[in-house]
Amino acid sequence: MRNFSGKAPTFVVWVISLVLFVVALLAHFGVVRLGAPIATWSWIIGFGLLLIACRVKGL
Q1: Alpha-carbon span 53 to 47, nearest angstrom
Q2: Which of 54, 59, 58, 53 is nearest to 4 (CA)?
Q3: Has UniProt tagged this entry with the keyword Membrane (predicted)?
Q4: CA 47, CA 40: separation in Å to the nearest integer?
Q5: Is 6:55 a contact under the CB 8 Å cutoff?
C-alpha cells in the first residue's frame, strides 16, 4: 500500500472550509437566502480546499 505523506490542514484553512460549509448548509435549509450557484460553489470550494490542504504541505 502506498504511503501518503499528507499533512493536516492549517487552522486558517480549516476555518475557511468550515465557514464555506456552514454558508452552504444555511442556504440549503433556507435560513439565509442565497442564489443556488453561491450555495453550491461554497461547499464545492470549501471541500476542495480542505482536500487540497490535506495533501499540500504547509497549506
Answers
A1: 10
A2: 54
A3: yes
A4: 11
A5: yes
1 pLDDT band, cuts 50/70/90, is: very low
Alpha helix segments (H runs only) across 1-59: 11-28, 36-55
> Among all chains, which residue has been given the C-alpha cell 453561491?
38
The x, y and z cell numbers of residue 32, run together, are: 439565509
Inform me whether the pLDDT recorded for 4 exceeds 80. Answer: no
State pLDDT tens for residues 25-58: 898 888 988 888 888 899 889 888 888 888 887 7
